[in-house]
Amino acid sequence: MNKYRNQINYNLGFCKLSPQEFINEGLTGKIEWMQHDYKDRFFADPFILEITNDELIVLAEECLFNNLHSGCIVELHIDKITYKLKARHIALQLNTHLSYPAIIRREDKVYVYPENSASGKLRIYEYDYSTHKLINPKVILDEAVVDATIFDNGGKWYLTATKVSDTRQNVFLYMSDEFNGTYKQVSNSPFNTSLRCSRPAGDIIKCGDRLFRPAQDCVGGYGVGTTIMEIKEITTDRIIEEEINHIEPTSFRYSKGLHTINFYRDICVIDANGYLMPIGGRICDWVICILRWFKRLLS
């Protein structure tokens, strides 16, 4: 029965949408889902690496259904017309779980700092276009943090992340003089403690002078939706923010969660979680709910 009810079956979705359009109107437009032939794994945490005339090139987490600690970082080449997966390269694979391959572009180089909390450290890598590999790792935070997200503001570099002790809430702020420097926690207290809007869910969205922080909604479970927070002020020890929008999955197949959103060149990429077998999964869930109801009724 679990194969029908599989709770972790993420896929990547794309739509033509600029950050400004998203802030003004929300997640509008048709979502085109990546088409692939893999039956034993899912893809999540997408960040757009490049857009060519023919392809969308994405870095993402790849994870096997039968080993949820097997995550590695892959480079996916997706046809812009059919959204069919054309090529796949393993960019980074370690003996510890990897996810959330966030990207920083500096001059003519690309840097990636994937989540690797199982190692107890956060490292930043250079991306090598010729080999499709992440190389030259450097430790920028000697701490086990989750879904770290780096951004610059006013010449300073900031990092937001939750900690392994409580990955779904209590998000902390760190700061460094350089994007690839050593990050230091600015306060012992988290700047947000809500399950609805703490854990990072993608890059900071910049619209003119305004900054917006996507955050996971974990109130009803892990990553059931995404909350968009506007950063109102960054002080010496915290971020002051307020909720402006909330996104939930609307696809029939991918209806159980949405926990990453990113933009690049007016293309929006998301991930969403759904039943491995949408109809069978719903039937199994209904049967289980009925059985539980009868069990409570008879007890």
What are the defining features of this structure?
20 strands, mainly beta
Characterization of this structure:
With 299 residues, the protein is mainly β. It has one domain: Tachylectin-2, Chain A (5 Propeller). Helix content is 11%, strand content 51%. The protein is built from three helices and 20 strands. The chain has helices at residues 2-5, 19-25, 278-298, and strands at 10-16, 32-33, 41-51, 55-64, 67-79, 85-92, 99-106, 109-115, 122-128, 133-141, 145-153, 156-163, 172-176, 184-185, 205-207, 210-217, 225-234, 239-247, 257-264, 267-273. A four-stranded antiparallel beta sheet has the order 2-1-20-19, with no helix packed on it. A four-stranded antiparallel beta sheet has the order 3-4-5-6, with no helix packed on it. It is globular and about 60 Å long. The model has no long low-confidence stretch (mean pLDDT 92).
Walk me through the topology.
Layout: H1 2-5, E1 10-16, H2 19-25, E2 32-33, E3 41-51, E4 55-64, E5 67-79, E6 85-92, E7 99-106, E8 109-115, E9 122-128, E10 133-141, E11 145-153, E12 156-163, E13 172-176, E14 184-185, E15 205-207, E16 210-217, E17 225-234, E18 239-247, E19 257-264, E20 267-273, H3 278-298
Antiparallel strand pairs: 1-2, 1-20, 3-4, 4-5, 5-6, 7-8, 8-9, 9-10, 11-12, 12-13, 13-14, 15-16, 16-17, 17-18, 19-20
Number of helices: 3
Binned, the helix content reads: 10-25%
Mean pLDDT: 92
Strand order, biggest sheet? 2-1-20-19
